[in-house]
Amino acid sequence: MSIQRLHVAKRYSEVVIHNGTIYLAGQLADDFDGDIREQTRQTLTNIDKMLAEGGSDKSKILSLTIFIKDMADYDGLNAEYDAWVADGHAPARACVEAKMYKPEVLVEMCVVAAV
Fold first, then answer.
1. pTM surpassing 0.90?
2. Count of beta carbons in the 10 Å neighbourhood of residue 113
3. Whether residue 1 has pLDDT greater than 80
4. Which one, 36, 50, 68, 110, has least CB within 10 Å?
5. What contacts 103, CB < 8 A, 6 or more positions away?
6. Residue 92 structural domain
7. Rounded average pLDDT over 39-51
8. Closest CA to 113 of 43, 34, 53
């Protein structure tokens, strides 16, 4: 079985497709100046783009892991997530508080989806 990699960098690939499954590297906002709601919106938009590039969409997400800098921002994150998630297609999900690689980063998400 072949493995397809998109947007390959030295340390990671943004998208890996294997055996009908798409794996996304941690997705971030494009601009870290925004609050949790803005960074969440941008992150979800980037997930949509990467899934589309791999031949999938948010209705086919199997699992989603959210890393949030501060659980005090959980409600703001969920407000954006709830508006985005496909009706009737909520994936298995985990949300954990984590120290981010840069202080400005408020949220990062990893996705596994079916093609």
1. yes
2. 25
3. no
4. 110
5. none
6. 2-112
7. 98
8. 53
Structure tokens at 113: 């989806």
Gap between the Cα atoms of 48 and 1, Å rounded: 26
- Strand, coil or helix: what is 73? helix
In whole numbers, what is the pLDDT of the chain averaged over residues? Answer: 97
pLDDT category at 104 given cuts 50, 70, 90 is very high
The owner of tokens 């501060």 is: 70
pLDDT computed for residue 86 by the predictor: 87
- Token reading at 100: 């981010």
User: What is the length of the chain?
Assistant: 115
Q: How many domains does the chain have?
A: 1
- The label of the residue with tokens 């990893």 reads 110
Q: How far apart are the first and last CA of the chain?
A: 15
Question: Whose structure tokens read 């659980």?
Answer: 71
38: exposed, middle or buried (Cβ count in 10 Å: 0-12, 13-18, 19+) = middle
Q: Which residues contact 22 (CB under 8 A, 6 or more apart)?
A: 15, 16, 51, 54, 55, 56, 111, 112, 113, 114, 115
CATH code, domain carrying 104: 3.30.1330.40
